[in-house]
Amino acid sequence: MTFAENSASDRYEFGANWASFVDNHYSAERRRMATDKLLSFLGKTSLEGMDFLDIGSGSGLHSLAAFDAKADRIHSFDLDPLSVTTTGKLRHLAGDPPNWTVERGNVLDAVYLETLGTWSLVYSWGVLHHTGAMWQAVENAARRVAPGGLFFIALYSSNVVKPSAEFWLDVKRRYNASSPRRRRWMEYWYIWRFDLGRNPLQLPQLVKRIHEKKKGRGMSYMTDIRDWLGGWPMEFADDQAVIDFLKERFDFELVRISTGEACTEFLFQSTSGPPSKPA
Ligand SMILES: C[S@@+](CC[C@H](N)C(=O)[O-])C[C@H]1O[C@@H](n2cnc3c(N)ncnc32)[C@H](O)[C@@H]1O
């Protein structure tokens, strides 16, 4: 089951949130944590010998993680110009390496994607459900995976969303239509209702969870709350439907899955080349 909302005209300003994350929260510690998490989910100690395509790079922290993990070649692209600028800032921090390119691009633009060729590791974390055409985006991204290559994606799961996908789609519509002041109020409302469960005694557990989030992918608690409340357009995917889709269309095998959080992480391996039949 998929809950689709295809109105991409009132897109959330993802790039502004990522620019603020890098300006206010970037640290060497987050950089290291992002690398550790990337490698651990891939079950690798380095990306030597692999190339890395980062679709919807956002802050660029995970492209930087791939650089630190010694990927041979990295290409990062994002639809939002501020995400592109922010990813460029982190590339600059890495010394402007010639084997890392950053540009504006749209995962729904099949002609652009074709120019990129195929990659031994295609990464798209928390992106494809924000395009307004999630299944097309999954398909376009999967076509960039080289034969035998890896496909690491994360998608909002309809299996775990509470109270319901419709509830959150409505909250997101309201958040995007709100003034900055009202948005701030909604962020506090979210923390009070969902992270504290309306119980101030939950504060110590929340502080622990915030620390663990940083340990996870190196992200920041408030950046993620804004991304969650604002992220638009938005769809949710059933975990098994994702696995079946990639098996049926591409013969991708599921290597690893991490569920239970808002985003399910999937690692697939291509067993052959991209399918010859068009979508
Ligand atoms: C939730 S953020 C995730 C960023 C990053 N992948 C991460 O894990 O931190 C989603 C990103 O996808 C980008 N995005 C949305 N639609 C896109 C599209 N059609 N093509 C490329 N990027 C897109 C947004 O601009 C945003 O930077």
Please give the structural blueprint.
Blueprint: H1 14-25, H2 28-42, E1 51-55, H3 61-68, E2 73-78, H4 81-93, E3 100-104, H5 110-115, E4 119-125, H6 134-142, E5 145-156, H7 165-176, H8 180-195, H9 203-217, H10 221-230, H11 239-250, E6 252-258, E7 263-270
Parallel strand pairs: 1-2, 1-4, 2-3, 4-5
Antiparallel strand pairs: 5-7, 6-7
Mean pLDDT metric: 92
Tally of distinct domains: 2
Low-confidence stretches: 1-8, 275-279
Largest sheet: 7 strands, mixed
- Shape descriptor: globular
The proportion of strand residues reads 15-25%
Rg to the nearest angstrom?
Answer: 18 Å
Order of helices and strands: HHEHEHEHEHEHHHHHEE
- The CATH superfamily title of the largest domain: Vaccinia Virus protein VP39
- CATH class group of the largest domain: Alpha Beta
